[in-house]
Every structure is written in C-alpha cells, then in structure tokens.
Amino acid sequence: MSTPVLVCSLTQIPQPQIHPVANFHPNVWGNQFMTYTPEDKEQVEDLKKEVRRKFMAAAARPSQLLKFIDAVQRLGLAYHFEGEIEEAIQHIYCSFHDSNDMDGDDLYNIALQFRLLRQQGYNISCGIFDKFKDHEKGDFKEALITDVQGMLGLYEAVHLRVHGEDILEEALASSTIHLKAMVEHLEYPLAARVAHALKWPMRKGLERLEARWYISVYQDEAFHDKTLLTLAKLDFNLVQSLHKEELSNLTRWWKELDWATKLPYARVRRFLTKPLQRL
Length: 279
Prior knowledge:
With 279 residues, this protein is mainly alpha-helical.
C-alpha cells in the first residue's frame, strides 16, 4: 500500500513579511548631550560652611532659627544640612513646654514650629492652636483674618494633621476660605505664595520642583538671605549638571551600540520634553 503524498501549492507556503519603510523623524536633540561642562563645586563648599555658621548664630533665637530652617528646606538645601537641622529641631523640641516659649500670640511662628517639628517626626500637640479659637463662636478669632502670614502658615501646618484632630480640620477649612478671599488683594510676592499654596500645598508638592519655584519667589522677598539664595541657585545648577552627565553617558552608550544601523526599524524616541536649564 503506497503512502499518500501531500502536495502544497506555492500560495500555501508562508511568505516572508515585508516591513513598511520606517521614515521616522530624527531625534531633535541630535548630539546635544554627548558632552557637558561640570559645575565648579568650590564655591558651593564655601557657602555651605557659611550656612553652618549661620545655624550656630541663630541657635539662641528659636524663632529666627525656625525661619532659617524653613528657608533651607524650601530652597532644596536640606540634604546638605541634615545633621544641623536634626540637632536644631531636637533642641527646640526638648526646650518646648508650651506655646509661650515662642511668641505665644504669633500664629505664624507657632504654625511654623508645629509644621517643622511634625515634618521631623516629633509628636507636638495640636492643642497649641486652641488659644487662637473663639470658643463662643466656635471658629478662629476674627483678628486673625488680617494676618495673612499667620493664616498661610496655619494652612501649610494643618496638612500634617492626623485622624481625630478636629481643631486642625477646622483650621484647614477656615484658613482656606480666608486665603481665597484675600489672594486677589495681595501684592507680589506674598500673593504668589498664597496662590501657589492653595493650588499645591507644600506637603503635597515634589521637593525638587517646589525648590525651583520657591527660588524664583524667595529672591524677591525683602529680607531674603543672600547666602542661602546664592547657594540654592548654585546647588540647583550642580544637580542639573549631574543630570546632564547621566544624559551624556546614556547618549554615548546609544551611539556606541549603533542601534540606528543594527535596528533600522527601531524608533529613537525623545526622552526629554525640553532642555535642562540653569538658574
């Protein structure tokens, strides 16, 4: 008995797939990131020494020290001074007995103290805000409405509340209402700070993006610290330089592999939306 032979027509044989011609636009950045110029770190180190001296000088004045720490953190410089900040906050916490230790009637200072201590992990009671309430009306005192700095500080502080802190829930509602009502009548840069806080509270922002924004506002503050401002700008540029170094290494790696020739149908996607910029 003969074995049947299967006959296939040529049309049934799988044909090689023909790829369409890839005509992608070239990478708009070209070889822009192949090289980069490192930033000078010497001036940064000198300024860091000066800032450490200012930490020591402010140690005897808790109110001034907290404002200095706040500026350091908001300018994106905290990672340089973690030890100094922790030591200062711990000292303030240990010497803290009640709100009278720090300008007892100054809402801004008390709110700043509350926020910085909680940010650092210290369990400070929300009861320090009780003195600012009008218990007969069940709301915060009317005199605080004109204290824009105080209301802004309170608004930022209450974002570190925990469950069950009713007074902070009330403070959030009250400060939000009053700040929204005042923002259109304020002048720059305070108006910019209030508008930014209402849109992106400090606690919910990305640290590096917040630092970039705050540098642009801080430099227009009447009593800004020139040393901190200069260091913040140099440090921001230094970090940008590190990113450029990473891009340079990545670009050279891609060029050395020669994927554009080996994989002609691969698309070189753009991995940046805009060039890295200096301050």
